[in-house]
Amino acid sequence: MVRSCARKDQTMTQPQPMTVPASQSWLETVRRAVDERLSRFFADERAAVGELAPDALLVLRGLESLTLRGGKRLRPAMLVAAQRAIEPRASLSMVLSACASLEILQSYLLIHDDWMDGDEERRGGPAVHVLIRRELGGRGVDAVGAHLADSLAILAGDLGCAYANRLFLESANACGAAGPALETYLRVQRDVVLGQTLDLLGSPDVSRMHDLKTGSYTVEGPLLLGAILAGAHHAQLDVLRRVARPLGEAFQVRDDLLGTFGDPKKTGKPVGNDLRVGKHNAIVRECELSVPAETRAPLTAILGRIGASDDDVRRAMTMLEQTGVRARVEARLAKLVDEAKAPLAGAPLSPEGVRAISELADLFGARES
Amino acid sequence: MVRSCARKDQTMTQPQPMTVPASQSWLETVRRAVDERLSRFFADERAAVGELAPDALLVLRGLESLTLRGGKRLRPAMLVAAQRAIEPRASLSMVLSACASLEILQSYLLIHDDWMDGDEERRGGPAVHVLIRRELGGRGVDAVGAHLADSLAILAGDLGCAYANRLFLESANACGAAGPALETYLRVQRDVVLGQTLDLLGSPDVSRMHDLKTGSYTVEGPLLLGAILAGAHHAQLDVLRRVARPLGEAFQVRDDLLGTFGDPKKTGKPVGNDLRVGKHNAIVRECELSVPAETRAPLTAILGRIGASDDDVRRAMTMLEQTGVRARVEARLAKLVDEAKAPLAGAPLSPEGVRAISELADLFGARES
Fold first, then answer.
1. Whole-number mean pLDDT of chain A?
2. Are the C-beta atoms of residues A195 and A213 closer than 8 Å to each other?
3. Do A196 and B159 touch (CB under 8 A)?
4. Do B197 and A112 touch (CB under 8 A)?
5. Backbone torsions φ then ψ of A259, nearest 5 degrees
6. Could you tell me if A89 and A199 lie in one domain?
7. B141 shares contact with chain A (CB less than 8 Å)
8. Both B151 and B112 in a single domain?
9. Cross-chain residue pair B194–A58, CB shorter than 8 Å
C-alpha cells in the first residue's frame, strides 16, 4: 500500500521512477513500522507500570511523549539499510525492536542532555523536564518542585535506557547475535556519554567530541548494528566504518548549518539559534579562520547573546553569506557526503543496501530539520 | 590463604569452627575477587577513556571512587550463593563480571539518587556530585558551576549504567545464558527506577516502593540472576522468589533500624539520621500505629527537623525503646528472616547453596552498616 502510493507520487515528479519511489517507499515503510512498534511497546508498558507502580506513569508519559513526537526515524533507517547491505532478504521484523531501541535510546540521551543544557523545547514541544514541571504544576513549582521535576526527568531518561536495552536485546536474540551486537551497542552508549561529557566541559577537541556524541549513535552505531545483526563479516564492517566516519561528520555539519541558517518553522528553534547560544559550531569556526576580525564584527556582536534582536542576528547571517563562509561550509558538507559514498563502490555489500545507504547519505547532507 | 586466616580467627571466638569459618571464607573470597575484578575493570577503562576522551576522566574517577569505596559486596555474595545453590561445582570466575556489574549498577543508582535526594555523603566519603563540585572548585562553584557538576555526576551514573550492562553481558555470554539472564537483569533496572520514582513522589504504597527500589536489585535480582546464570529450572527459581520476598523486606527493615538507632561511626550518618530527615520508615510507622499521640511527642517534635539537637533526637530514641517500638520492629525483622529461610528446607537446591543463602539471610538481618 505504502509502496504503491509512493510510486504514484513518483511518476509525476521524478525522471527515474524505478529507483526513487522504491526508496521513498522503504523509508516510509520503516518509519511506519517503527512508529507502530513504539506505540505497541508503550501501550504494553503503560499497562505493566499501571499495574506495578501507577504513580510512576507520569515519568513513563514523559518518555513516551518525547519518543512518539520524533518523526524521521533516520537512525532506524540507517540500521535497516545496513541490514539489507549484508542480507537483502532478511526481514524488517527481525530488527524492528532494535530500531525502536535506537529511538528510545535517543530519547534517554535527549532527556538528560536537555536538562543539562537548559533546553526547554524539543521536537516542537516541551523538553521532558519542562513537561513534568507542568504536570506537577498543581503543587506549585518552587525551587523544591523544580528539583523534583528535574529528578523525575532524569528518571524518565534512566527508564528509557533500561527499555532501550531490553528492546535491543529482543532483536539481538531474534537474530542469534546477542553477544557481538550487544557489545557494540553498549560501546556506543559509553561513547555517547563520554561525548556529552566533553561537550559540557567545552573540550577543545571538537571533532572528537562530535565523533563520540553524535557520530557514534547516529551513523556508525546504527550501520554497524544493522550489519552485525544480519551476520556481517569483518571486511563488510570495515567498509561501513569507512562510510560512517565522513557521514557522521556530515551529519554534524548539516546540524550546524541548520542551527545557523535553518528555517525556524522547520527546525523549531529561533533564527540563528546556535549563534545566540554561542555555540562554537563549524560555521563560526570557518568564519574565524577565514574572515578578518573587522569584517566579522556583526557575528562577534551577537555570538552568545541570547537576547540579540532578530535584525542583528540576520546582519551576522548576511555577513556569513557575503564572505562566502556559508558556501565554503556547504562545499565541505558535499565533499563529506561524497567521501562517505566512495567506499560503497565495489564493496562486498548488496546493491539494494548500497542504494539505501547512499540515499540516506544524500538525505543526511540535505535534511531541513 | 584467606580461608586459613578466617579459620584461625574462628578457633578463638566461635563454638562451631567447621561451619562459620568456611562461610566467612567464601564471603571473603567473593569480596576480594569482586574488588580485584572492579580494580582491573577500572584500570582498563581508565586507559581506554584516557585515549578516547581524556577530559572525561573526571567523570570516570567519580564513578570509580564511589564503587571502590563500597565494601561489603553483599549483592555479589547473594548472586554467588544462588549460583552455588543451583550448581555447586560452577566456578566463581564464570559470574565474576556479573558480580562487578551489580556493584557498578548500584553506583549508577546511588549517584543519581544522591543528587536527587540532596545527600552529600555516601560510604564515608563525598557523594559523586559533591566530589565533582570539589574537583571543579578551581573554576569557583557558582550556580552554573554547580549545575555543571550535577550534570557531570548524572553522566557518571549514565556511564556506570553502560559499564554495568557490558560487564553483565560478559558473564551472561560466558554462561551461555545471554537471553534470559539479560531479560531479568533489565527488568530489575526498570523496577529500581520505578521504585525511586515512587519514593520521590512520596507514594503511600511504601511496601511496593521498597519492593521495587531495594528488594529488586538487592535480593531478588541477585538471587534470580545467579540462578539463571547457573542454568536454574522453574521450580528452583520459584523457591528463590519465595526466599527473596521476605528477605528484601528484612533488608529494608534492617536499613530502617540502622537509620534510626544505628551507630554513627558504623553507618557514617548522624545519630537518628532517618528521623531528622523525616523519613517515614518502619519504626516511625510502627510508633504511629501503636503509641498514643501524647507519648510519641518527642518523636513528633524532631521528625523532619534536620537541625534538631542530638539530645532531642536521643530523647525520641529513648521513647521508641521504652514504648517497645524498637523491640517490636526487631521481632518483625527476625520473623521476616525466618520466613525467608523457611522455603529453603527440602528445596531442590544444593546443600552448599542453601547454607550460603541462609547465612546471608542472617547477615542481612544483623548487619551494622
1. 89
2. yes
3. no
4. no
5. -65, -20
6. yes
7. no
8. yes
9. no
Tell if the CB–CB gap between B194 and A52 is shorter than 8 Å: yes
Residue A11: pLDDT band (50, 70, 90) is very low
* Alpha-helical regions (H) of A53-142: 57-69, 74-86, 92-117, 128-135
Taking a contact as any Cβ pair under 8 Å apart, which residues of chain A between 184 and 213 contact chain B? 186-187, 189-191, 193-198, 200-201, 203, 205, 208-209, 212
Nearest CA in chain A to B181: A169
User: Over the stretch B164-203, which tens digit does the pLDDT of each residue have?
Assistant: 999 999 999 999 887 889 999 999 999 999 999 999 998 8
B182 plus B280 within the same structural domain: no
Q: For residue B189, is it within any domain? A: yes
Q: Choose one of A201, A232, A263: the last residue of a domain.
A: A232
Task: Give me the phi and psi of B122, to 5 degrees please.
Answer: -155, 130
CATH of the domain at A253: 1.10.600.10
Q: Decide which of B63 and A16 is more confident.
A: B63
Specify whether B228 is located in the same domain as B249: no
Cα–Cα distance, B129 to B309 (Å, whole number): 28
Cβ distance A148 to B200 less than 8 Å, yes or no, reads: yes
Closest CA to A182 of B99, B103, B186, B178: B178
Name the residue with cell 551576522.
A316
Q: Please tell me the distance from the alpha carbon of residue B116 to that of residue B198, in angstroms, as a whole number.
A: 13
CB distance from A334 to chain B under 8 Å?
no
Query: Per DSSP, which regions of B3-88 are E strands?
Result: none
- Which residue reads 534538631 in cell numbers? B308
Under DSSP, is residue A304 helix (H, G, I), strand (E, B) or coil? coil
Q: Does B353 share its domain with B211?
A: no
ipTM: 0.89
Number of domains chain B contains: 2
B206 part of a folded domain: yes
* Domain boundary, last residue among A232, A258, A285: A232
Is A183 near chain B, with CB under 8 Å?
yes
Same domain, A214 and A294: no
From chain B, the residues in CB contact with A198 under 8 A are 53, 55-56
Whether B365 is in a domain gets the answer yes
Pairwise CB contact (< 8 Å): B53 & A203:
yes
Q: Which of A169, A200, A203 sits opposite B151 (nearest CB)?
A: A200
B151–A55 C-beta distance less than 8 A: no
Question: Does any domain span residue B237?
Answer: no
Asked whether residue B59 falls in the same domain as residue B162, the answer is: yes
- A262: domain range? 245-369
Is B51:B9 a contact under the CB 8 Å cutoff? no
Interface residue A55 vs chain B (CB under 8 A): yes
- Nearest Cα residue to A281 out of A189, A199, A338: A199
C-alpha cell read off for A315 = 546582519
Chain B contact for A174 (CB, 8 A cutoff): no
What gap in Å lies between CA A304 and CA B142, rounded to an integer?
A: 19
pLDDT digits (tens, 9 = 90+) for A280-339: 889 999 999 999 999 999 999 999 888 899 999 999 999 999 999 999 999 999 999 999
Q: Is the dihedral of CA A142, A146, A147, A152 positive or negative?
A: positive
Q: Same structural domain for residues A136 and A277? A: no
Q: Contact at 8 Å (CB) between B212 and B192?
A: yes
Q: Distance between the two ends of chain A, CA-based, in angstroms?
A: 27
